[in-house]
Design a protein that fits this description.
CATH superfamily of the largest domain: Aldehyde Ferredoxin Oxidoreductase Protein, subunit A, domain 3
Strand content: under 5%
Helix content: 40-55%
Strand order of the largest sheet: 1-2
Order of helices and strands: HHHHHHEEHHHHHHH
CATH architecture of the largest domain: Orthogonal Bundle
Structural class: mainly alpha
Oligomer: single chain
Number of strands: 2
Number of domains: 2
Largest sheet: 2 strands, antiparallel
CATH class of the largest domain: Mainly Alpha
Shape: globular
Radius of gyration: 20 Å
C-alpha cells in the first residue's frame, strides 16, 4: 500500500520477530518491530519471549496478530505482559518451557550456535552473555568451518578483543574492515587526537583490559564466574540442514583465557 510502518527493520529483529515465531509476512514483522519501538522494549529479547510463549501454547506459531497482542500486553502491563516483558528466561520459567534460548539471562540473537560455533563460544564466555556484538564469528565462516570445533575458542577470543577495542574507541562494528587490514590506524587515530605515542600493541592491551574489567564488574556484582552453558537442547537437538549440535565442552571454552594473540593482530 505504500504506507510507512516503521523507519527500518534491523536484521536481528527480522529473525527474532519473524521466522523465530513462524511469521513470514514482512509487513507483519515491521508492525511488530514498530510495536516494540512504541512500547520501548528490545525486539530481540521480545521476539525470543514471544517464541517461547508460542512453544508454551499461549498463541500458535505463525499467529502474527496474536504476537502483536502480546507486545501490546507488555505495554499495558497485564499479568502476561509483565511476564513477557521480563525477558525470555522469566517467560520460559513461568510458562514451564524447557527449551529457553538464552545464555547468562540474555536471549540468543539470530545466530544459532549450532551453525556458528564461534558465536556459541562468545555467548558462553563473554561478560555480556548471548551478545552477538561481543564477538561475532559470522565473518570467519569462509575461512573456518562454522560447525567444526577447531579454532573456535581462539577466534572468539580475537573477536571479543576486537569488539572491546571498537566499543572503547566509540566506533561502529561495521567500520572494522579497514582496521583489519591496517590495525595501526587505531594508534594513529589516538595519537592524532590526543598527542599520544602509542602503538597498536597498546590498543590491543586496552581491549584485553576492558574485558578483564567487565569480568571483575560481574564478580563484584555477584554474577558467578562459573560459565553459563549453551542451552541443553542445542547440545542435544541437531539443527538442519547439516544436523549439527553445539559440542564444545565447557572445559574447552574455559581455555579462552589462556589464548594469546600476536601483537599485530586485530
Amino acid at each position: 500500500s505504500g504506507r510507512k510502518i516503521v523507519a527500518s527493520i534491523q536484521y536481528e529483529n527480522i529473525v527474532l520477530l519473524g521466522p523465530n515465531c513462524g511469521i513470514g509476512d514482512l509487513d507483519a514483522i515491521a508492525e511488530l518491530n514498530h510495536l516494540c519501538n512504541e512500547v520501548g522494549v528490545d525486539a530481540i529479547e521480545t521476539g525470543a519471549s514471544i517464541g517461547v510463549a508460542m512453544e508454551a501454547g499461549v498463541v500458535p506459531f505463525g499467529d502474527a496478530e496474536g504476537a502483536k497482542d502480546l507486545v501490546r500486553q507488555i505495554g499495558q502491563g497485564t499479568y502476561l505482559g509483565r511476564i513477557l516483558g521480563s525477558g525470555v528466561v522469566t517467560t520460559g520459567r513461568v510458562l514451564g518451557v524447557r527449551r529457553i534460548p538464552a545464555v547468562k539471562g540474555q536471549a540468543i540473537p539470530g545466530y544459532d550456535p549450532r551453525a556458528l560455533k564461534g558465536n556459541g563460544v562468545t555467548y558462553v564466555t563473554s561478560p555480556m552473555g548471548a551478545d552477538h556484538t561481543a564477538g561475532n564469528a559470522f565473518e570467519t565462516a569462509r575461512t573456518l568451518d562454522p560447525i567444526g570445533k577447531e579454532g573456535q575458542v581462539e577466534i572468539s577470543r580475537r573477536l571479543q578483543i576486537r569488539a572491546a577495542i571498537l566499543d572503547t574507541m566509540g566506533l561502529c562494528l561495521f567500520t572494522r574492515p579497514p582496521f583489519v587490514k591496517r590495525p595501526e590506524l587505531f594508534a594513529q587515530l589516538l595519537n592524532g587526537r590526543y598527542g599520544w605515542g602509542v602503538a597498536y600493541e597498546d590498543v590491543q592491551k586496552m581491549g584485553i583490559d576492558v574485558l578483564e574489567t567487565e569480568r571483575e564488574f560481574n564478580r563484584r556484582a555477584g554474577v558467578s564466574e562459573t560459565f553459563f552453558d549453551i542451552p541443553e537442547f542445542m547440545r542435544e537437538e541437531p539443527l538442519p540442514p547439516r544436523n549439527s549440535v553445539f559440542d564444545l565442552s565447557l572445559e574447552e571454552m574455559e581455555q579462552i583465557w589462556n589464548v594469546t594473540l600476536p601483537p599485530n593482530v586485530f
